[in-house]
Specification:
Keywords: Coiled coil. This protein is α/β, with parallel strands linked by helices. Among the domains are: about 70 residues, no CATH class; about 60 residues; about 55 residues, no CATH class; about 100 residues, no CATH class; about 110 residues, no CATH class. The chain contains 31 helices and ten strands. The chain has a four-stranded mixed β-sheet with strand order 7-6-5-8, sandwiched between helices. The chain has a two-stranded parallel sheet with strand order 1-4. It is extended. The chain starts with 6 loop residues before the first helix and ends with a helix.
Length: about 750
Amino acid sequence: MPAVRTEKHQRQWRPTKKRSAAQKANCFGSTTCIIHTTPPITPRGKENARRVSNSPSSPYSSHHSSPTSFDVALALRLRSDKYEKKCRNLTRQVSRAADRKAELEKRVGELRQELAGITKKSSAYAKALDRRLDEATEELMRRHENTSALHTRNVEMTRKQAVLEKRLARSDDRVECEVAKLTSQSLKEEGIISAQIRACVRDIVAFGAPLEGVSKIIHAVAKGLNIKIKDDISTRSASRIILEGGVAAQLQIVDAVKNTDYLTASGDGTSHRHLNYESRFIVVKEKLLALGLTQAPSHTSEEQMAGWLKLIQEMYEAYNESPIGREHPEDFRTFFIKITGMMTDHAADQKKLRGMFKELKKRLDRELRGEPAWAKNGFAQPVILMNKDNDAAANSGSAAAKERAEKVSSRGGVKLCELMGMLLNNKDDKKGQQDSHGVYFCAHEHIGYSIKFPDTSNTRYQCFSEAAAEIIVNLPVYRDLMEFIRFRKMSLAYNHLEKNIWTAINDIRTIIELVVLLWYGQNFSHAVMRVVRSRTSTGGLRNLWDMGPAIRGVIAHLERVILDPDIIMGDNLSFETAAMDGQPWERPEAMYAAHALLPTLPRNELRAVFIEFMEGALETWRRFGSDILGVELTEEQKRRAMMPTTNDCNEGWLGSNSRVALRRAPNASLEYINAKSQYKHNGTAAFIEEKLDTPEGQKFLRQKAQEISADGRQKKRKLNQAEHDAKTVAEHRANKEKSDKKKADEIKAINSLS
C-alpha cells in the first residue's frame, strides 16, 4: 500500500504551474498508472525525518486495486503519442527556424550591401562636405578680406565725404563754370575725332549730305541745341571716315558669309561714258547685302570673273587683318564654295560666266518676236524707221546702200515706242518735248490733265507694253500733238525723229503691233508682275524657286489663247477670261480702245501676228521656266538656294551709283561711292557698334581707310583702262590691215586675170 503524503511533502511537491484538467487526468486518473523510478525523497537537513518507503509512490489510494497490463500499455501509448506530438512540433520549429535563418541571412546580405552603399555615399558625401567646407572656408576668408577692404573703403569714403562736403560749400561758383563747359563741346578726343562723331558723319553722308557740308551741318545742329563746337571736320577727314564705313561693310559681309552654309549671288553691268561698271549683290540668310560697284576694262566673262575674285579676295584680306578676324582667319575660297545660285541677265557673256561658276542661271528672254509673223504669212511689214544717216544712204540712189540701210534699220511697234519715248520723255532734260507734251494734254479738251509718257530709254520689263497702251488709248491726241509740234515751228517741217514718229503712228501694221503688245502686257505681263513684285504680305513671292505655279499659269493661259484667240480678240471681252489671273486689267481703257480700233485693222493680219507673238512668248516662257519647273526642291533646298524673283537690286544699284552718283560727284572714287552706299544699305552702323566699337577696332578702321586713300586705286584703274583700250585698238588695227591686205590681194588677182 503506497505511503500517504504528508502535508509537508504535499507542500514541497506542489507544482508551480497550474495544470489543466486533462493533464491532471493523465497523471492522477483512476485508470492511469504512473510508475516512479526515482528514489524516495528525503528532506535535506532533516535527520529525524521519517524515511519514506522504497515502494513506488502511487496516487492510488489503498482501496484501489493494482494496475493491469492494459492500463500500463494504455499509459505508455498515451505518453508515446504525446512525445510524437512534441517531436512533430519540434520538427516544425526546426524547419521554421531554418527558414527564418535563411531569411535572416538574406536580410543580413542585403543590409551588408546597403551598408556598403551607404558607406560609399557617406564617403562621397563626406568628401563633398569637406570640399564645401574648404570652399566655405575660402569664401569666409574672402569675405574677411572684403570686409577689411570695405572697412578700408569706408574709411576712405568717409574721408572723401568730408572733402565733398567742403567742396559743396564752394560749389555755387563752380556750377556756372560747369554749365559753360556743357554748352561747349569738342569733336575730337586727344586730337582724334571720336567714334561717336565718326558714326554721325557716316550717317549724315549716307542720308545724302555732301562731304563739304558735313562740318557745317554739325555746327548748325549744335547751334540749334545751344551748343558751341570748338573745332571742325575737314573734307578730307570726312572722306576717310566714309571709307572707314566701307571697310566695316567689307568686314560685315565676310562675317555674314562665315556664319552661313550657303548664299546666292547676283550681278549686272552697265557703261557710263564708255567705261564699264559692275554691280554685285549676295543673299545671306534671306538678307540682301551689297558688294559694291567695280570698274572693269571690258564686259567679257573673263574680266567679270577676275573682278569677282579680286573683290572677294580684298574683302577677306581686310577681314583677316582686322581684330575680329585675326584669331580665326577666313579663306576667300569658302565664299565661292558656299554659292548655291547665281542671278544675272541672259546675255552670252553671262552664260559663259555661269559655266565658270558651275551654276545654272537663266533669265527671261525679252525679245519681241513680231517680224517673223509678217514674212511667214506673206503680209506687208510695218513701215521701216531709219535713222538720219541710214535714210540719207538709202536716198543716195545706190541700191546696195539702200539695201544695207534697210537691213540695219528697225521697224514696228517697239521702234515707235522707243522713238516716242525719245521725243516725249527724253532722259536728257535739255532734249525732247516732254514739257510741251504735258502742257498740250493738260489743255486738250478730251484729256484735261498732264500725262507723262512711259520711260523707254531704260530697258526694263513692261516699258514697251506700257508705251503701246498709252499710244493706243490716246492715238488721236498723239496724232494731233505731232501736227501741233510741226505747225508750231517757223519751218513748218518735222525733224527726222518727228517724221519717223508721224509716219509710224499712221501706219496700220505698226498699229497692229502696238495692239498685240498692249494685249500681252495687260493680260500676261501685269498679271505675272502682280505676283513677282508684290510684297510677301500681300501674296507676292520672295524666292525665285516659288515661281513654279505662276509660270505654269502663264504657259497654260498662252496655250488657251493660241487655240482660241477670240478669248482676247472676240466681242465678248472680259478680264475674267482674258487676263491670266482673272483680275481686272491694269488699264481697262486700253483694252477697250484696242477693241474700238479692230474694225479699222485687217483682222486676218492682226490674228496671224497675235498668234505668232503668243507662240513666241510660249516658247520663251517654257525655256525660262525649264530650270524651275524641271526640278522638285524641298523647302530646305529652296531656302539654301534663295534668290530674289527679280534682279532689281543690281539694276537699281548701277543706276544710282554709276550714273546718278557720278553725275553729282564726277571726281568721286569708287571706294567712296561704295563705302557710302554699302554703309547705308547693309546696316553697317549696327555691325560697328556690335563688333568694332573698341579702341583696337576703331584704330584698325582708321588705318585701313588711310591705306585705301593713299594707294591710288583710282589712278591704277585709269591706267588699266588705258592699257586695255590701247590693246583693243592695236587688235582692231591689225584686223583692219589684214582685211585690207586680203581685199587688195583679191583685187590684184582679178586685175591679173583681166
